[in-house]
């Protein structure tokens, strides 16, 4: 018979957490003509996260951005397809890490907030922490951009039931599970909306913290067009509503067509009941046609909802195929 001896309380127990490797942190900085700001941005993140790997992906800059980034100590790579969405897609595919910090290379985001964002991601086992922008400097966050952000944020909240206070923030911290299971479809500045909707659609564990937002340094200019990029973001929200909430999207059209058909039919029905005649045949045909279109829209929504559920299950399985945050290490940022 094998005897069992309980562990002696007077003997020291090994510290198993010390044997776990520290989490690998990668700072991702997409850039386009940011020579005036990228050196300052790299230096700020190097000071905040001294053990992190810092990657600058240049997007066809013509002002020497790559040389300045390399001189600042970043690993510089190039993405030729123009657009921030293309750059983020390449970054997420190429870089291997446990925790990813995504920011812009224009020195507007507070690099000193990164350790706290990483700590929250690790402590709460989250998949994304969004750095919501907070600034008292009018030049840093223009009034038109604030208003557009509120409108777009409201649209996302109305469509998907919940949202963040700043869906367009480019300052985010991700788990490896999120990055390696996220199918990047956006091409330009609508990438932040794509990321936000993906997290809301799969109901991933996320959080939001307020972070300082500064004005660009002298010589740096914004690449964001208020109207053009705002329209692209709004278009993406509508497309995502169509693909992710098809019953709601097509149901609204069905309700509109059906209400119009009923409105046209009131007098026709009253006349028919009184005289037994339908004197306005074109109106009757139009009402019938609108009713058929409404039924067709509703059926399309129901069919596409089945397809959407299948796609969502596939996304969820791809997400679950990745290790959970903290698996294989203690999830803590490097010292």
Oligomer classification = single chain
Rg, nearest Å: 26 Å
Stretches where pLDDT is under 50 for at least 5 consecutive residues are 1-5, 13-19, 330-335
Number of helices: 10
Strand content: 5-15%
CATH class of the largest domain: Alpha Beta
Number of strands: 7
CATH topology of the largest domain: Spore Coat Polysaccharide Biosynthesis Protein SpsA, Chain A
The helix content is 40-55%
Which superfamily, in CATH terms, is the homologous superfamily of the largest domain? Spore Coat Polysaccharide Biosynthesis Protein SpsA, Chain A
Mean pLDDT: 83
Main beta sheet: 7 strands, mixed
A few lines on this structure:
The protein has 335 residues and is an alpha/beta fold. Helices cover 48% and strands 12% of the residues.
